[in-house]
Structures are given as structure tokens and as C-alpha cells.
Write a structure and sequence with these properties.
Blueprint (H helix, E strand, L loop, with lengths): L3 H17 L4 E4 L7 E9 L2 E8 L5 H5 L22 H15 L13 E7 L5 E7 L9 E8 L12 E8 L5 H22 L1
Parallel strand pairs: 4-7
Antiparallel strand pairs: 1-2, 2-3, 3-7, 4-5, 5-6
């Protein structure tokens, strides 16, 4: 019992720390000041994602549906966007991305922009719903989106040069909270075993 109380207090401290330390981490380009190349630790619906950015000109079809049949289950098309089926999850990812980039980080040094597009399913087959920062200027951030953008528009060039794609990939990182709870449940078993041995 002498070990249980300090360990229990320690576990509670870890749980409270992990509850407040869930902010995403920005990975910067080592050669370009203030240029973000990825954001790690974005948690949506209990899944941790890493966001990377496509800053070369590309349409929705270029990235997600090369044969342009609006079907993600065939062998030609890759996977659907991470939050395709959930506007709420796309909004959550967008808001965490905006918070991580803050007021001075860019995702493209060419366009001097921090405006990353996140796609979810729109109401028209050839369109998608966008979730993004409302302003390409890093110093002006607000949540924004558009209910219907064309999948054929090329983002990252001409009048759309400040728009870039954010791609979210799930990462398998054990959550500190889960590890703390696991250790909390195994401690009594260890103590009990030691008592039986002595």
C-alpha cells in the first residue's frame, strides 16, 4: 500500500499533464525560416494525424481521383480524403491546423500563404466542400470554408495560387493517457505479486 499512493498521485499528474499537452507540433523546413512542411499530432475523433502540404499546382482529381469517376473504391483511385465523410472532423482538423501554424508560419514560401485546403464530401458529385483558413495571410486567421468547389480547379496557380492542399495521414502514436491508465491498472497486480513473494 505504501507504493500505491505515490504511484496513484504520479499517474494522476501524468493524466492531467497529457490533457493539457495535446497541441500539435509543427515541423519546419531547415532551410527556410517560418516554412512549415508538416504538422504532427492533430487529433480528430481519437485518431492522431500528420498533415503534410502539397504546394505544387494540383486539382482534387490530381490528388485523390486520377480517373475522375468520383469512386474511391476502384483500383485506379487512391483513398478518399481523410475526413471525406465528416464535415465536423474536417472542421476540427482545420481549426487545429490554423492554431498550430499561428500568426507567422507559412506552408508555401512562393505564395507567402498559410491557406491549406481540407476536402470533405460536397452535395454535387463533381464538387467538394472545402475547409480552410479564411485568409492566406499568416497574421489573419479565421475558420472558413466553401460548400461547393470544383474538383477540376487547379489550386496553387494563377488566381488560386495561395491555396494549397493539406493531406492528413493517420499515425500510430500511443497516447500518453492510455499508457498512464495501463500502468495504473497493472500496479496493483505487481504489488500483490510482491506481497505473495515475501
Amino acid at each position: 500500500m505504501n507504493l500505491f499512493k505515490p504511484f496513484f498521485a504520479f499517474t494522476l499528474a501524468i493524466l492531467s499533464f497529457t490533457a493539457t499537452s495535446t497541441a500539435a507540433t509543427v515541423i519546419l523546413d531547415p532551410n527556410t525560416p517560418n516554412l512549415a512542411i508538416a504538422v504532427e499530432g492533430i487529433v480528430v475523433d481519437n485518431i492522431t494525424y500528420t498533415a503534410t502540404f502539397i504546394t505544387e499546382p494540383a486539382s482534387f482529381y490530381d490528388i485523390y481521383d486520377p480517373n475522375q469517376d468520383n469512386d474511391f473504391s476502384d483500383s485506379t483511385t487512391g483513398a478518399a480524403p481523410a475526413f471525406w465523410d465528416s464535415t465536423q472532423n474536417a472542421n476540427s482538423a482545420r481549426d487545429q491546423l490554423i492554431a498550430a501554424l499561428g500568426n507567422n508560419l507559412l506552408i508555401s514560401s512562393n505564395s507567402m500563404s498559410d491557406l491549406a485546403l481540407i476536402a470533405s464530401q460536397g452535395s454535387i458529385p463533381n464538387n467538394f466542400r472545402s475547409h480552410s483558413d479564411g485568409s492566406p495571410a499568416p497574421s489573419q486567421d479565421w475558420s472558413s470554408g466553401h460548400p461547393s468547389l470544383s474538383k477540376t480547379h487547379v489550386y496553387g496557380e494563377n488566381s488560386l495560387s495561395q491555396y494549397h492542399w493539406a493531406i492528413f495521414t493517420p499515425t500510430n502514436i500511443p497516447e500518453p493517457t492510455s499508457l498512464a491508465l495501463l500502468s495504473l491498472t497493472t500496479l496493483p497486480l505487481i504489488i500483490r505479486r510482491k506481497r505473495k513473494a515475501s
